[in-house]
Please model this.
Amino acid sequence: MPRTIEYGNLMHRAMRNLIQEVLSDVEAHGLPGEHHFFITFDTHHPEVEIADWLMERYPGEMTVVMQHWYENLKVGDTGFEVTLNFGDAPERLRVPYDAIKTFVDPSVEFGLRFETQNDADDDEDDEPEVTLAEVDPEDAPKKDAEIVSLDSFRR
Model:
């Protein structure tokens, strides 16, 4: 089989590294200005660690918001840990970068969406698709972050 450059995997890795770098900066210096994050992740990923009651409430995927109240953010090479408040119940979460489905900062209209391409053959070499997304900051605080694929605007 001829050797190819796997752009999808390279882009996937680069975007996960971007998230790690952003979170590392927040860990060191806090959230600047109006920045805040909506992070959606796969709760069934084998390395996700969340409370049982959260797993029951959010089977499949969960979106968390890092904005006004978060504690003990710890950023590592494979994921991050943070304590968030769920209705006056602080809970520690561990989220590997590979479990992240979307990462959105509506304050600057920035978002990433990670999708896995599944074809009929269920090929193990499926490359994840990384889509830069556009977010309307007026919508984000009122409802879940809305992510719009830039592909929908291409002709």
Remarks:
- The radius of gyration is 16 Å.
